[in-house]
Specification:
heterotrimer, A alpha/beta (414), B alpha/beta (480), C alpha+beta (130), B: 480 residues, alpha/beta, Rossmann fold, seven-stranded mixed β-sheet, two-stranded antiparallel sheet, 14 helices, globular, C: 130 residues, alpha+beta, Ubiquitin-like (UB roll), five-stranded mixed β-sheet, tRNA processing (chain C), isopeptide bond (chain C)
């Protein structure tokens, strides 16, 4: 005899993973949507008039997110202006298909769509990056870049908030990962429903308490269009362990996912534990915990053929690099600028203030007077000439240079 | 969707490094170059004597750093007979011996809790094991006590409400309990040998445990019951400190399984060097900086005798309970990434604990309640989901919607715990979760829990009414 | 009686350490048996019928006995139930400490260690309490 829906008199068609209750389709839709609504209202995520950029990857989370946001915006009069924002990492085969899906979503939900690409922002596609550095640590690059890409794209559109489709399973997985890694700073932040502040775009997760299984069920029953496949550049293997653990936990006790989130919310950090300070990157003016933000460091590494810069211990890598360069300099006996302490080498090269001038090799041919790949008169990036040292002392901000491959564009350009 | 985008801002991508498979064959001791006998601390080898120095140092420094044990103090040592507590006993004996460098300045009393009833089997094999444990305890020369888990049903909770504490402090601080605790040091009399516990009591306990529907809930319940029994025994015997022998591996497993069961707020209490949740009795974990392998090796090298008593989930499948699953997960990960256990324990070391001096504590595990979290929370979300998925019953009296607790089975019956609906208000999130799976009668629950819950609810009601009650010190718990 | 026939027959009977076989092999002086002691503790003994100490004579074979094949032999001959709680793939489950003559097997080559006569191999389970 078929079970009855727990809420009405129809037959049940599914069992909710979250509570174990049996529900019919319509009651399930209603419960799912209204729970998201409740999350939004209780947490005060939006205000009327907000322009909200929906991070759309074409996957199930973002498709259901776009659909649900639209439904709730209409049903409850949030008064929001919704836009789809998608990031093109430049991964052939994977991203092309998902972008097609997002374009279809645009039609299906009648929402405006903007796509920002790594190529356009940083001058590198993920394909090119992987070619350069292989499959290890490529996820680091992608993660850092994507985060900034979304923010920059949203700002360009005048959005006041970003929403992403992170669901309960994702957050639980992040909590476990952070415990395993001993990352106290992230552990404290990762269960927050809204992250980001201080003048930068707040990023909310309305699906924070929604189970992945329920999102899949919703998409399935409503026959929503989505693209599901794993990134072809193998994802972080370590995270895979956390994911398997969560899935196994869910089998033993379905509420475990929410329980983990509750645990994460109840954690408090000891008062005397040092937390990284938030400041602003000196190169691109984006928010950062360090002098130079991670994306700039990574890009610097890529552009100069030292892709391990930014992976692992930066200062070690940098020191090794300076040693290598110093060695090379003495070998080739480069012509350095006079050690006169002049404050500005005046060549107009793109400088990274940490490394002194010439730290980014700019490939504009007309500047290559000597034909040796370096600017005339500058130390060639060894930082060992007077110019580089003085630059560091004077802390001049990076000059903006428009060329094919470049450092981070100043945020204010957008 | 790729989830990597959360690597941001401070960008320290410090993923653990897999052990490179470096061959350590024939490595010498890192301290003295002698042939090594074990590998620990990722890939350091030690010879036997340097290893002993290492272990003793970790043990002594854990105690010393905490500055919690005063000179001449007597402490209770929870002794299960297993590997970890045997190692702890040996370390204490070694530390008290005359030749020890800077002798230990406290004296131990051993306490064993016989949990053999859990397996439900009464066998000669188990009797022999019990006898062996008893021998080990007597041989140690320390005062030793023996009790049974069944006694946890006889614990009468100590009243700790504000009005009572004043009058109590002038009396004997020991609780009015009369638990059955055998003093093993006395001449063995016919009924002093640790017999099987009375059948009736064992059955009661077994029924209680079996009323929890999942192994996870059973294990969690037994864990808390055991701790409360330790506390009650300590109070009865007049001790204020209990040493338990958890290794860092065991703690790492416990940290994750706590998180998985919604006990995130208690992680630092459950796994730190000390735990002061229970009034008057503090738990300490002196071997928490040594991992399971190191303790096992110590036992093997120094001929420490151990007795393995089966537990609830011995020989069950890997996914039989959350604790078991987590143990497999952590030990598996540790094999490939040797810094796993220390990372996890270090993380918990940075977590602050809730303020244990608060008076609103869980009636069972005595942790400060973590359920006052507002609507935007996991707890709020679950309650709302239940609300959305079930027919609503609004209780007109308190205007709170009473939804049937726990999973609704196909016949839609309320679980009997609904007969004491306020019980869960007096419990923390983690204990609530376990109680959700309890489908026995509330009369089966230990007095310990139900009494405390009743008092705390009355206390809360009294607070709400304060200002309207004319008599200042009206006895809330009248009949008691 | 063909000596060849007996040699191959002797190698085939792995389980039984019968006196007659021993005599024969010693007589033939081929494929000597390898006496070792295998011990279990920390709960691992529950999988071997609660017997902690096993003095065994490993049957002679052409190749050297390594821990690797000792594990297979233990699984076939000593483990009475739930082998998956002892072995994982071709090695022991994580959480089981292996000592060879009182030394960590990581220092002796782990699975590749070649067994000698009178070696003492101890398996200590660190899972589960204490």
């Amino acid at each position: 005899m078929p079970r009855k829906c727990g809420n009405c008199t129809n037959n049940a068609v599914l069992k909710r993973p979250k509570t174990g209750d049996a529900l019919c389709k319509d009651c399930f839709y209603w419960a799912f949507e209204e729970e998201i609504h409740q999350t939004i209202v209780d947490a005060g995520l939006f205000s009327p008039g907000d322009t909200v950029a929906i991070g759309a990857s074409g996957g199930k989370d973002s498709t259901v997110l776009a659909h649900t946001m639209k439904v709730l915006n209409d049903r409850h009069d949030y008064g929001l202006k919704l836009i789809l924002l998608s990031v093109d990492e430049g991964i052939t085969g994977y991203r092309d298909d998902s972008l097609e899906t997002v374009k279809r979503n645009q039609q299906q939900y009648d929402l405006p769509l903007t796509i920002v690409s790594y190529e356009e922002l940083y001058g590198w596609t993920m394909d090119a990056i992987v070619e350069q550095i292989g499959l290890k640590n490529n996820c680091t690059f992608c993660g850092v870049f994507r985060r900034q890409a979304l923010d920059r794209g949203a700002m360009k559109l005048g959005a006041t908030k970003i929403v992403t489709g992170h669901n309960a399973d994702d957050i639980a997985e992040t909590v476990i990962m952070n415990v395993l890694r001993g990352d106290i700073a992230r552990l404290r932040r990762c269960t927050a429903i809204t992250t980001g502040a201080d003048g930068y775009l707040p990023r909310c997760k309305p699906f924070k308490y929604a189970y992945e299984k329920e999102i899949v069920m919703y998409a399935y029953f409503k026959q929503l269009d989505y693209f599901s496949t794993e990134c072809i550049y193998s994802p972080n293997a370590y995270r895979g362990y956390a994911r398997t653990y969560i899935k196994d936990l869910e089998k033993i006790r379905p509420s475990a996912i929410i329980d983990i989130i509750h645990s994460g919310e109840s954690l408090s950090v000891k008062k005397d534990v040092k937390m990284p300070q938030q400041t602003v990157c000196s190169v691109c003016k984006f928010v950062s915990s360090n002098e130079v933000c991670k994306a700039c460091v990574l890009l610097e590494g890529l552009n100069k053929g030292r892709p391990r810069l930014g992976i692992g211990k930066t200062h070690k890598e940098r020191r090794k690099w300076e040693e290598d360069l110093a060695e090379e300099a003495s070998r080739l006996s480069l012509h350095n600028t006079a050690v006169s302490g002049s404050s500005d080498c005046g060549q107009g090269c793109a400088r990274d203030e940490v490394n002194g001038c010439g730290s980014v090799f700019v490939g504009a041919d007309e500047d290559d007077v000597n034909g040796d790949g370096r600017r005339n008169g500058c130390c060639g990036g060894t930082g060992s000439g007077g110019c580089g040292t003085t630059q560091r002392e004077n802390r001049m901000p990076a000059q903006k240079v428009i060329t094919a491959r470049t450092t981070m564009r100043n945020l204010l350009d957008f | 969707m790729c989830n990597v985008e959360d690597q941001e801002r401070n960008g320290s991508e410090n993923l653990p490094v897999s052990s490179s498979g470096k061959s350590l064959t024939g490595s010498g001791c890192v301290k003295c170059g002698e042939p090594g006998v074990l590998v620990t601390r990722i890939h350091d080898s030690f010879c036997k004597s340097c290893f002993q120095v290492y272990v003793v140092h970790k043990f002594r420094s854990a105690i010393g750093k905490s500055k919690l044990i005063r000179d001449g103090e007597t402490v209770l040592v929870a002794f299960s007979g297993g590997g970890n507590s045997s190692a702890l006993l040996h370390l204490i004996q070694d530390g008290l011996s005359l030749r020890a460098h800077k002798r230990l300045r406290f004296t131990p009393t051993l306490l064993h809790i016989d949990e053999s009833c859990i397996s439900g089997v009464r066998s000669d094999e188990l009797r022999q094991k019990r006898e062996k444990i008893r021998q080990i305890m007597i041989k140690s020369g320390f005062p030793s006590y023996w009790t049974q888990l069944e006694q946890s049903l006889n614990i009468y909770p100590e009243l700790s409400s504000k009005s009572m504490s004043k009058s109590k402090s002038s009396e004997n601080p020991a609780s009015p309990n009369s638990l059955w605790l055998t003093d093993l040091g006395q001449e063995p009399a016919p009924n002093q040998v640790p017999d099987d516990p009375p059948l009736e009591e064992s059955r009661k306990l077994q029924d209680l445990i079996k009323s929890f529907k999942s192994s996870t809930a059973q294990e969690d319940f037994i864990h808390n019951l055991r701790n409360q029994l330790l506390v009650a025994a300590a109070q009865q015997l007049g001790f204020s400190k209990i040493l338990t022998a958890e290794s860092s591996t065991r703690l790492a497993v416990h940290i994750l399984s706590d998180i998985a069961q919604g006990r995130g707020s208690q992680v630092s209490l459950d796994t730190g060097i000390s735990d002061e949740r229970n009034p008057g009795v503090m738990f300490m974990r002196p071997v928490r900086e040594l991992n399971a392998k190191e303790l096992a090796m110590y036992n093997s090298l120094f001929g420490v005798d151990t007795v393995f008593m089966p537990t609830l989930t011995t020989k069950t499948s890997i996914a039989s309970s959350i604790e078991r699953l987590t143990e497999t997960f952590v030990t598996g990960l540790q094999a490939d990434y040797p810094s796993t256990v220390s990372n996890i324990v270090r993380t918990s070391g940075k977590l602050g604990g809730p303020d244990v001096k608060r008076t609103d504590k869980c009636s069972f595990c005595q942790s400060p309640l973590d359920t006052d979290v507002g609507k935007t929370s996991a707890l709020g979300a679950v309650l709302f989901s239940q609300h959305m998925s079930r027919p609503k019953m609004v209780d007109p009296k308190d205007n709170k919607e009473r939804v049937s607790d726990g999973p609704v089975y196909s016949n839609g019956t309320h679980t009997p715990i609904a007969s004491m609906p306020n019980l869960k208000e007096a419990l923390c999130y983690g204990c609530r979760l376990s109680l959700h799976e309890f489908d026995g009668d509330t009369s089966m629950l230990p007095t310990l829990i139900t009494k405390r819950a009743m008092w705390s609810i009355q206390e809360r009601q009294k607070d709400e009414l304060s200002g309207y009650l004319l008599e200042e010190d009206v006895e809330v718990n009248g009949v008691g | 009686m063909d000596s060849n026939k007996f040699t191959s027959a002797g190698a085939a009977h792995q389980n039984t350490t019968r006196q007659s076989n021993v005599d024969l092999k010693l007589k033939l002086n081929k494929f000597k048996m390898l006496p070792v002691t295998v011990e279990f503790s920390g709960g691992a003994e529950l999988l071997c019928g609660n017997v902690k100490k096993h003095d065994v004579d490993l049957p002679g074979q052409q190749n050297k006995w390594q821990i690797r094949n000792l594990l297979v032999w233990i699984k076939d001959n000593l483990i009475q139930e739930r082998p998956e709680l002892f072995l994982l793939g071709d090695t022991v489950r994580p959480g089981i400490l292996v000592l060879i003559n009182d030394a960590d097997w990581e220092l002796m080559g782990e699975l590749d260690y070649e067994l000698q006569e009178k070696d003492r191999i101890v398996f200590i389970s660190t899972l589960h309490g204490g």
